[in-house]
Amino acid sequence: MKQNIGNALALYPMPLAVIGAMVNGKPNWLLAGHLGIIGHDRVLVSLASAHYTNQGIKESGKLSINLVDEALLPLADRAGCVSGSKEDKSALFDYTTNESGVPMVVQSPVTMVCSVQDVYETPGFESFICTIDATYAEQSAVGENGKLDYRALKPVLFEMPTYSYLKTGDVLGACMSYGT
Predict the structure, then answer these.
(1) Where are the beta strands (DSSP E) in 58-123?
(2) What are the tens digits of pLDDT across the range 78-123?
(3) Alpha-carbon span 90 to 105, nearest angstrom
(4) Smallest Cα–Cα separation from 45: which of 55, 28, 33, 56?
(5) From CA 57, how far away is CA 43, in angstroms rounded?
(6) Which of 53, 114, 111, 115 is nearest to 80 (CA)?
(7) Are strands 14-15 and 157-159 parallel, antiparallel or unpaired?
(8) What is the pTM assigned to this prediction?
């Protein structure tokens, strides 16, 4: 028999990402664990309303989602420990910008540059609904089929209830093969 544990959010773990945006003419970085897919062409980035980065996202309508792997984790964790309103985080990562001026973490194995289409507000949060303009991937993260290979990429996962970082696991099998 299942036990009722209240209204616990049970969709963790989630991929960990560093969100990048230009704020007051400088790149700012924010560690985020509230990301979602809301269709084949839309993603959601949910950030606490008080975050400094939100200001730049709303002004430019652009952001980058930089996936975190184990090598990037120490710097990514630092991005989540301090506010850009109190400390200049522009030099925390090596970065480049795309043609739209969106900052991208060079050390991230995969970066998605996104345009904000809408902002959905809930108490204490701003959720940015975005289209993906471009995805940049290191060759080591791309399989022979030209698509992302998550076994090679090994993104870090974030689990909220315990505030833990997790490694990705083994492949269990092919999708749509168990029920046939």
Answers:
(1) 62-67, 95-97, 103-105, 110-122
(2) 999 999 999 999 999 999 999 999 999 999 999 999 999 999 999 9
(3) 11
(4) 33
(5) 15
(6) 53
(7) antiparallel
(8) 0.94
